[in-house]
Amino acid sequence: MGDCSFGITGKDFVILASDMNAGRGIIKMKSDENKIRALGPHLAMAYGGETGDTEQFTDYVERNMRLYHIRNHNALLPPAASAWIRRQLAQSLRSRKPYAVNLLLGGFDTTTSLPHLYWIDYLGTKADIPYAAHGFGMYVALSTMDKWWFEGMPKEKGVELLRKCINEVQSRIVVQFNFNCILIDADGVHQLDLSASDPIADLSRAPEKAEVEVPNPIIAAPA
Amino acid sequence: MARRYDSRTTIFSPEGRLFQVEYAMEAISHAGTVLAVLSKEGIALAAEKKVTGKLLDLSLAPGGQMGGEGNQAWLGGGGEKIFLLNNNILAGLAGITSDANSLVNFSRNAAQQHLFTYDEDIPVEMLVQRLCDMKQGYTQFGGLRPFGVALLYVGWDSLHGFQLYQSDPSGNYSGWKATCIGANHSSATSLLKQDYKDDLTLEEARSLCLKTMSKTMDSTKLGSEKLEFATMTLDPKTKQPLAKIYRPNELDALLRQLELGGTSDDQVGVGEATGGGGGDEGNVAMST
Asked: Sorted alphabetically, which Pfam families does this protein's record hold (chain A) (predicted)?
């Protein structure tokens, strides 16, 4: 439970942020571990939980999403992907050695042009919600999101809210975190640099610098 | 050594043909015509009922409850031709009825399995592919006979909107704007080719579908006792797919409106007393 991740939806986008710590117990072994994975052209997840299980499970999910895409020429839409991932965790829970993985799944539905965010835990709980947190974020930042989140937020406000949450974590939680952040919109999955003063402006100025490696195949939408 | 004979069913002839598959397709070209027309607003599907007769009791048969809209469409088309496979997919079948029933059951199962794992209606082409994978299997493995059924699939999904597909016993499938299977399918398709326009309304698609059907079928006057009819549209409120299988009185009203026949209420059954019905037509095991 040394993790911390956030998800925020807004007008035509969803932001996912995750801490970058890796370690065991009270020992931190790494502070630059990427714990966000792109699963498709408009889908990504931030994950935490038992080390090893997390990598194993996200690899499994990523490759199955890719297989579906190759077989059917269309990637799974976020609602269908969330149902599949939830079922895998629910089935795993009832096996001899369940995956202990919690995740936030963010995606952009290209058929309805709506952003989606799902809170999913290792028990197979799934909630479709506008903003969410896992780990330490749940203790200290949910109230911050309750107060500042509003329907149809622009991207800049989304980043501002994320910064408020991270600030809360850094001032209230003993553990020190670095944060890694992505944004998903109609154009796909982009990296956001939280150390920049205005990451959204940077993104629109130079989108090629914010590219995230997305599993193949990427099939361009028909014009 | 039964195997020697069994394995013959699906091997190539010296000319490179698969006779069993060709015979299956031949069986279908004697079956009742099924015809569908695609438009931007929805799809119209009509099917000719071959098994009719005064003494045939369809009231308890699958589809005997005779249609309806939305969930009521699960009741079927009052015969053996039009079935709802999933909320978003209707099928019209031509061929051996018992084979068709088995395919309907398989595809309903596949659709529910998709709903179970992905919590969404199965995309139309995926269901078509599932079914065709199975049909293809029966042309390749020894000891089995291919399905003697061709299908028209009429459906809607969020990825590609309204879609119309056709599949045959070999497991081939293709997408169409308007097409036809069963008896006289070639003359019907050439009629459709002449009259189809890309910007049809649903109203026009319905009328093109039934008018072509009336030219294709042997009988001069159409009526609900010879025809099943269904449409796939979008519910104007929810924007979700809405299947409608016409009840006999609704279909007759539509046929009268298009001046293609339609038995008026007091005329129901009058024709059956004298000609038609019974006799060799009453054999349920035949191709429909």
From this structure: Proteasome
Q: What pLDDT does B61 receive?
A: 64
- For residue B160, give how far its alpha carbon lies from the nearest alpha carbon of chain A (Å): 9
Question: pLDDT at position A216, please?
Answer: 63
The pTM score is 0.87
B158 touches chain A (CB under 8 A): yes
CATH code of residue B117? 3.60.20.10
Query: Taking CB atoms and an 8 Å cutoff, what residues of chain B touch A42?
Result: none
pLDDT level of residue B264 (50, 70, 90 thresholds): low
Residue B116 lies in a domain: yes
CB distance from B118 to chain A under 8 Å?
yes
- How sure is the predictor about B275, in pLDDT bands with cuts at 50, 70 and 90? very low
- Closest-approach residue (CA) in chain A for B161: A111
**Residues of A with Cβ-Cβ distance to B119 under 8 angstroms:** 79-80, 82-83
Specify if B37 maps to a domain: yes
Q: How far, in Å, CA of A101 to CA of A88, rounded?
A: 11
pLDDT (tens digit, 9 = 90+) per residue, A64-78? 999 999 999 999 999
CB-based contact A200:A153 (threshold 8 Å): no
Chain A residues whose beta carbon lies within 8 Å of the beta carbon of residue B117: 83-84, 87
CA-based diameter of chain A, in Å? 52
How many other β-carbons are positioned within 10 Å of the β-carbon of residue B106?
Answer: 16
Contacts across the A-B interface (CB distance below 8 Å): 23
Q: Select, from the ranges A134-138, B16-20, B247-251, the one with the highest average predicted confidence (pLDDT).
A: A134-138
Residues of A in contact with B158 (CB under 8 A): 77, 111-112
Distance of CA A70 to the CA centre of its chain: 23
Domain with B91 in it: 17-49+76-258
| Burial (Cβ within 10 Å: 0-12, 13-18, ≥19) of residue B269 | exposed
Q: What domains can you pick out in chain A, each with its CATH number?
A: 4-210 (3.60.20.10)
Nearest CA in chain A to B159: A111
**Which of A72, A79, A87 is closest, CB to CB, to B117?**
A87
**Residues of chain B with C-beta less than 8 angstroms from the C-beta of A79:** 119-120
Residue B63 falls within a domain, yes or no? no
What pLDDT digit, counting tens, does each position of B40-94 carry? 999 999 999 886 677 877 666 655 567 788 888 888 776 789 999 999 999 999 9
pLDDT one-digit tens code per residue, A14-32: 999 999 999 988 899 999 9
Contact between A131 and A5 (Cβ < 8 Å): no
> Is residue B64 a part of any domain in this protein?
no
The model's pLDDT over A149-163, given as tens digits with 9 standing for 90+, comes to 999 999 999 999 999
- Complex ipTM: 0.89
Query: Any CB–CB contact under 8 A between B133 and chain A?
Result: no
Task: Name the 3-class secondary structure at A168.
Answer: helix
Residue of B117, B158, B159 lying closest to A84 (CB–CB) = B117
Measure the CA–CA gap between A5 and B258, rounded to whole angstroms: 63
User: How many domains does one find in chain B?
Assistant: 1
Residue B182 in tokens: 């069963």
End-to-end Cα separation, chain A, in angstroms:
45
